[in-house]
DNA sequence: CACGGAAGAG
DNA sequence: CTCTTCCGTG
């Protein structure tokens, strides 16, 4: 019950992101955190959706890094290190870079959702598995075994 | 800035 | 495994 996070032009179903309130569970993941900031309008001066669907720009890299550092208890976090973590997402197909545009990345939503919330998603859709309305292409390979 | 190898933490 | 830290390269 977190109201419809309306990050402006983009909105996702609740199951599209992690209920960070997992009691002592595993740590929050960076892309969950990014999505979280993107949902809140009060951070639009720091990070916001811009351009194509799923594309966002980090308007204030230092601030996003600072916020991430606080969340992970890493006081020395900075954009250089945060962006390295973001780069690891390229191979995982969670994100990719919008080349030419500074501080701009793009989510591969169809992939992110399918890979991370397969069953959860199915349930939310009422039993029928289908491609989400925003997802263009389906996956075509297994990422766990090359 | 952006990229990705390497080593290391938890 | 998911980053965090450090760093050479373009």
UniProtKB/TrEMBL annotation:
UniProt keyword annotations, A-Z: DNA-binding, Nucleus, Transcription, Transcription regulation
Annotated GO CC locations: nucleus
GO terms of biological process kind: cell differentiation
Pfam families the record matches: Ets
Region forming the signal peptide: none
Main location: nucleus
Gene3D superfamilies per the UniProt record, alphabetical: Winged helix-like DNA-binding domain superfamily/Winged helix DNA-binding domain
Record InterPro entries: Ets_dom, ETS_fam, WH-like_DNA-bd_sf, WH_DNA-bd_sf
Domain ETS: from-to ranges: 28-108
Subcellular localization, as worded in the UniProt entry: Nucleus
Molecular function terms from GO: DNA-binding transcription factor activity, RNA polymerase II-specific; sequence-specific DNA binding
Family from the record: Belongs to the ETS family.
Cross-referenced PANTHER family: ETS, ETS DOMAIN-CONTAINING TRANSCRIPTION FACTOR ERF-LIKE
Protein name: ETS domain-containing protein
Species of provenance: Capra hircus
Record lineage: Eukaryota, Metazoa, Chordata, Craniata, Vertebrata
